[in-house]
Design a protein that fits this description.
The chain is α+β, with helices and mostly antiparallel strands and 395 residues long. It contains 14 helices and eleven strands. The strands form three sheets. A six-stranded mixed sheet has the order 6-4-5-7-10-11. A three-stranded antiparallel sheet has the order 3-9-8. α2 crosses α5. The chain starts with 7 loop residues before the first helix and ends with a strand. About 5% of the residues have low confidence.
Length: 395
């Protein structure tokens, strides 16, 4: 019985191969992927051999291999399905138990050079005679590994300019000096004593009383408030945009910038070695007003599997005596238990003209130098964790 009289679906049915149509589709997919050794293909060969079909098929193909150069277009169309589904991708002899299936290289060559417009064992002939080649698993694996080694991060890294490098080094030096540690990124929360006892400010206190308390706290820190700080009263500002308008800060002005604050809570304790011991999962994030924040990257850098989320206002009032819209790093004066951990944007240290922060209320702002602000945080008995939000890494 010749090849031309055999229908693949009928042959698979005769060989008792389950789901003939699905099995042929799977074999074709594996052949196009360049998979030579697979349980599906070897199982098909064994089933065909058991049914007495494989030997006849191989005899017919061996005859055709000897005269492959004389194959007619009709013969090519007849042989094509067999190589697409069963023999496709075989570039060497394949042994299945005691059966040897040859590679039929001459037939492969004829099919490769065929001008047939239908799909063939290596892909599809397109307009212009181009061929979509079937991937070879081994060569594709080598190329993939080479690509990974060439670009392990799979990200384009920006080149740091000399000016950016100088500003970064200056900021890192100031961070070390302000934290009193050899590395600000390794600073531990709760490294000192809380020294603001008797100065905490209840939530409902007036602006005048809050400013009086801030002045007393600055004196305790060795900060000359009247000389080095400035107060601006304004309408309540519950958003960054409103605060910038109240302080008349814009991108084209050289006035001191305002700080942006976020109160966050982690779902589970940190896995970072220098954070997990004593981790309260509560954080106050203070950045420049125009800093872009990725909570996913920030959380990852501090050892959290899941991204931190906005903390509830009840927790904000309980620990810092602040309300939403009035969040400020100066609120640590009310956190005697040191429940709130601090993360600062390293860009803050570059602002030699000072920065604007809320004095425990959003209807006024106080300008302080970065160094004085760090002193204020230090007296609360905790260190500052510095973060480079541009590179998403601790410093």
């Amino acid at each position: 019985m010749s090849l031309s009289t055999w229908n693949l679906v009928e042959i698979f049915t005769q060989a008792s191969i389950p789901s003939p149509v699905d099995s042929l589709a799977k074999l074709k997919m594996l052949a196009q992927m360049g998979v030579v050794h697979s349980a599906a293909r070897e199982g098909a060969f064994l089933a065909l051999h058991k049914a007495g079909i494989l030997d006849v098929m191989l005899q017919e193909l061996n005859k055709l291999e000897m005269n492959a150069s004389t194959m007619t277009p009709e013969t090519i169309q007849t042989v094509l399905p067999w190589f697409e589904h069963i023999f496709g991708g075989l570039n060497t002899d394949l042994s299945v138990d005691a059966i040897t299936i040859p590679a039929f290289p001459k037939i492969h060559e004829v099919l490769l050079n065929s001008n047939s417009t239908s799909a063939h064992l290596l892909g599809a002939v397109r307009v212009g005679g181009q061929i979509d080649l079937k991937p070879q698993s081994e060569s594709e694996s080598v190329l993939a590994e080479r690509a990974i080694k060439m670009n392990p991060a799979n990200k384009h890294k920006k080149v740091e300019t000399q000016r950016q490098k100088e500003k970064r080094l200056k900021a890192e030096a100031l961070a070390k000096q302000s934290s009193g540690k050899s590395s600000a990124g390794n600073s531990q929360v709760g490294g000192g004593e809380y020294e603001y006892k008797g100065l905490s400010v209840p939530f409902a206190t007036s602006l005048e009383d809050k400013l009086t308390t801030i002045r007393s706290a600055c004196k305790l820190c060795g900060i000359d408030f009247e000389k080095n700080c400035e107060i601006k009263e304004h309408e309540p500002t519950h958003t960054v945009e409103a605060l910038l308008n109240a302080l008349k800060i814009s991108d084209d002005t050289s006035s001191p910038p305002a700080l942006k604050n976020m109160f966050l809570k982690a779902k589970k304790p940190s896995r970072s070695a220098d954070i997990k011991e004593g981790d309260t999962k509560l954080w106050l994030i203070t950045t420049m007003h125009d800093t872009k924040i990725s909570l996913k990257e920030l959380s990852k850098a501090f050892g959290y599997k899941d991204a931190m989320r906005m903390g509830k206002e009840e927790l904000l009032k309980e620990h810092l005596q602040l309300e939403k819209g009035s969040v400020t790093p100066l609120g640590v004066i009310n956190d005697e238990k040191k429940m709130i951990q601090i993360i600062f944007d390293q860009r803050i240290l570059e602002e030699t003209n000072g920065v604007w922060v809320h004095p425990l209320t959003c209807d006024a702002s106080v300008k302080m130098s970065p160094n004085d602000l760090c002193k204020f945080i230090g007296k609360s008995g905790r260190s500052i964790h510095w973060f480079d939000f541009g590179a998403n890494k601790r410093v």
